[in-house]
Amino acid sequence: MRFLEVINRWINRYFSNEEAIYLVVLLAVGFLVLLLLGGMLAPVLAGLVLAFLLQGLVNQLARWGVPTAAGVYIAFLAFLGGGVALALFLAPLVWQQLKGLAVALPDLIGRLGEVAQGLTQSFPEIVTESQLTVWIDGAAGQLGNLSAAALQGLVTNVPSLVALLIYLVLVPISVFFFLKDGRRLLNWFRGLLPANTSLIDRVGDEMNEQLANYVRGKFIEILIVGSVTSVTFSLLGLNYSLLLGVLVGVSVLIPFVGAAVVTIPVLLVAIIQFGWSWDMAWVVGAYLIIQALDGNVLVPLLFSEAVDLHPIAIIVAVLVFGGLWGVWGVFFAIPLATLVKAIYNAWPEEASPAEP
């Protein structure tokens, strides 16, 4: 009975406020919609994210005196132009380097074996030549199934190709109408809520600022880090520089973990191509400098409002939301974690006294 009394007092303290109930219901409905219908609504959700990203350009054009309607069309045409440029120029180059990497894998593994032979000679007590032979033979054996696996992947992913066509049609349409009628849709949604929503308004205002800062800043960060890395690796003569640059740029989506994971292919390609040489050291040094400038210069400049979250909280958010919603969950892990924190900060500590 005492346990039930404790639960009852806790509920009365935190959930007797009607605004808190509204917020809980709204969050529960939103979570269920994403969990149950997220896959089906993915093109619309993607359009919403891209429209939110482009809204910054519309607002900037408005500050320069461009009418809102004209700004919407300019932003939408910029979006279409960027998508066409990506499809016609960047994507084919990345695909070409990816195919070249797949064809060169046997030679690369052989080259890696030659480089590793130096380790067995320098540190025989750690890695023996027999162990190294077993590892290399195993890796070479796996390559024998690469073509069959690729063919099977193409067959099994035919539905994904259909989904891609759906995205190509529905995402641009969603982007346009979210840009054009976003404020009207927002007013309609607010009309569905009760009149007294000050708690929801406080959480919504904080999240709107955080999302605007995070989504646009992260998009710019990906472009800058990916471009600088590709150009730097190309100047240093590193193979697959564009492919590695894209990987490094995308890796900034996952704080801490992304940078650690993408370091592995960069190191492998540098070691295989240059061996243990000064050329390899220059590549590694340039990569470390890019990572340091990204974390210590670029991120503070782009993200005007620092996300005050502990690194452990960020890692947990990436794991949880990434497990729930895949790539989108990883991308929005920090904003979602910030939403949880905003709700915690705005939540009424005690229920308001009941009015007579």
Query: What is the H/E string?
Result: HHHHHHHHHHHHH
Give the averaged pLDDT, no decimals.
Answer: 75
Largest sheet: none
What's the oligomerization state? Answer: single chain
Count the DSSP helices.
13
Provide the gyration radius in Å. 26 Å
Q: Can you tell me the residue ranges where pLDDT is under 50 for at least 5 consecutive residues?
A: 351-356
| Number of β-strand runs | 0
Strand content: under 5%
Sum up the overall morphology in one term. globular
The end-to-end distance, rounded to whole angstroms, is 30 Å
Determine the fraction of residues in helical runs and give it as a percent range.
over 70%
Kindly name the structural category.
Answer: mainly alpha
Show the helix and strand layout.
Layout: H1 2-15, H2 18-37, H3 42-63, H4 68-122, H5 129-143, H6 146-156, H7 158-192, H8 198-235, H9 241-251, H10 257-274, H11 278-302, H12 311-331, H13 333-346
Helix pairs in contact: 3-4, 3-7, 3-8, 4-5, 4-7, 4-10, 8-9, 8-11, 8-13, 9-10, 10-11, 12-13
Overview of this protein structure:
Helix content is 84%, strand content 0%. The chain is an all-alpha fold and 356 residues long. Helix 3 (42-63) crosses helix 8 (198-235). The protein is globular. Mean pLDDT is 75; it is low at 351-356.
